[in-house]
Amino acid sequence: MMMRYLTQIYVVIGVLSLCISNILSAQTVDRSRSTGEAPSEVEQIQVEKISDSVFKLGLITIDKANESISIPAKVNQREGLIELLLCTEWGRTHESAFTTNVYPVYLQTAMLVLGFKYGAPVAFAGESKTPTGDPVEIYVTWRDGSEKARIEDFAYDQPKKSSMEHVSWVYTGSQFVNGVFYSQEEGSIITTYHDPNTMFDNPLPEGADDTVYYINADLMKNVPEFVTIIFAKPRQVTEGGDL
Question: Which domain does 164 fall in, by range?
């Protein structure tokens, strides 16, 4: 059973690595705004078994038992208008709360291995149509996991004068066109403003407006530079409460 799981990881890596090859050969990824070099492709692709249910794929931790994926990230902005909650260090860092040096193509690998199914992104930035895909809950933890918050809590809805509503994010999986995985090239991972190139999009109507969300400065001021972002399958709820 465990060997089959490892084989599945390697098969998905092999397929999605073609995206990296196409992007690197085209040399179209702009990393000029990066605060540091991302680990090499070889480092990002290494697979390590931690336990019977936990695996490392480069910087990514896949927890099969808890149906979750964890990646390292860091605070990028502590105030201001945002369109993203997470992008790569070569992405749109001027409007993102957090950044990561994890390659989106391998985050996509981890999502597929864990059984998430991507849907369809919007056709263009700011489209009012709701994107489709599996629901995903996203959390931010810090201080070795002793502090935890929903990632929506870091987005402040200016018109409503409150934190963003707690939602299940839409796993669109970004666009894959002519051998190019656009989340990898553009660096968009979690967006509050609808984006065809993102992996996780906002399900709310506010996703069609790029002037709604600001960083929740009151929360962000208490967060250290380095954090962990967790992507998890939504918990089932019964009439008696959470399972």
Answer: 2-242
